[in-house]
Amino acid sequence: MTDVRPFRALRYDPRRVELAKVLAPVYDVVAPEDRPLYWERDPYNALRLELTKSVEEEAATDYAETAARLAAWRGEGVLVRDAEPALYVLRQTFTAPDGRALARTGFLAALRLEDYAKRIVRPHERTLAGPKADRLKILRATRVNLSSVFLLYEDRAGELERVLEAALAGAAAQEASDDGGITHRLAPLVDPAAVAAVRGFLAPRPVVIADGHHRYETALAFRDERRAAGERDAEAPPGRDAEAPPGRDAEAPPERILAYFANAFAPGSLLLPIHRLVKKGPPPGPEVWRRLAGWERREVAVASADAIPAALAEQLAPLAGRHAFAADDGSGRLAIFSKPADAELTVRVLHREVLGGLLGLDDAAVRDGAVDFPKSALQTARDVRSGRGALALYLNPLRPDDVFRVTEAGETLPQKSTFFYPKLPTGLLFRTLEPE
């Protein structure tokens, strides 16, 4: 079962810092040139715990300096651990790329780590070894979950909504806005009945990793290391995993990870497309596109890159019920392709029939960097017109049903298929690997 528990978060003392100044984007979206920006914004900025100031320092560090910094901030009272365990409800209020005002409400908890084979926590994409090795170094050094995994659950009727919203109305809520204009409101949920309702609702339901596969698999590796080392936690509450060997503490802190949970089917859950930018080579001419059998093709004129988002909304979005994509070679003509949908995902069909079959870019070429995966259609269009890319392939977003269907079947999506917006910032809270 999906086992979540309250925990005592490590949080910034609002009397010591301005929360908006210490928040940072999650580490894996910070551009190398932006690291100094966050490091210098505030001496207690959360990115100082997640990343070295320069990329060049990263390979050689063992993160001992980060661990010392974390201990110093706790010693100074800048970071303080809450007195009692709680679930932490988070509402993010934001503006969608199409201008809609939205709010997504979820919660953070300590999730029991489960191997993928159990089908309780389900991945939807593959991971790379390099990022996991770096995150394992920092977890060993700090023994703190510095950023959370983002997971989706299915609640089509919105059963948990009232429980979560009640916590946000309390006086204990904290609020801050980040650089992207997203307002984050965080509140502890400590009422035993409400906590039990959340735990009971989630227990029989599998969850899908929306973001943070590398963090999750790093935590699994660290858990296994500590198991092998015979780590014990004498102060843990009673309870033992039925599959754990005698003597192993099923509630040792490394058995869990900091996780954020959101209802994939809530109105504020926004799933955006990730496009494909073919970086080199001449764009296909009409004779090449004619080899793409079974697809209907039509063209529309676009005056400039700035016109692309509106053209996609008008021409591509209505084709969400079909396999569909738009091709842009910067010529001022946007080609719209579609054909009847089947059970296969459009993104997978695109990789096989267009990137592979038409353009000759196999999986190895894609992994080696022949294709970029931009999230902004506007920026992608500008890249094509400036020569930073040869061909843009624009997609409609997947639906939550698609993600759950694929993971239910035990499959993974092609890399960079989903973008759940917005991401979670680093710095709202941390989870220490210490007894509760």
Please explain how this structure is put together.
The chain is an alpha+beta fold. The protein folds into 2 domains: 4-271 and 421-432, no CATH class; 274-396, no CATH class. The chain is 31% helix and 23% strand. It is built from 15 helices and 21 strands. It has helices at residues 19-22, 35-41, 47-50, 55-58, 64-76, 129-142, 161-168, 192-202, 213-228, 286-289, 308-315, 346-358, 363-370, 377-386, 400-408, and strands spanning 4-5, 10-12, 79-81, 87-95, 101-112, 121-122, 144-145, 149-153, 174-177, 183-189, 207-211, 256-263, 270-272, 276-278, 296-301, 323-328, 333-339, 371-372, 391-395, 419-421, 431-432. Helix 6 (129-142) crosses helix 9 (213-228). The two termini are 22 Å apart.
Mean pLDDT, rounded to whole units?
91
Poorly predicted ranges? 232-244
The percentage of residues in β strands lies in 15-25%
Secondary structural class: alpha+beta
Main beta-sheet strand count, sense and barrel state: 9 strands, mixed
Strand runs, count? 21
Q: Supply the number of helical segments.
A: 15
Oligomer: single chain
How many domains? The number is 2
Helix content: 25-40%
Q: Tell me the distance between the termini.
A: 22 Å
Computed over alpha carbons, the radius of gyration is 23 Å
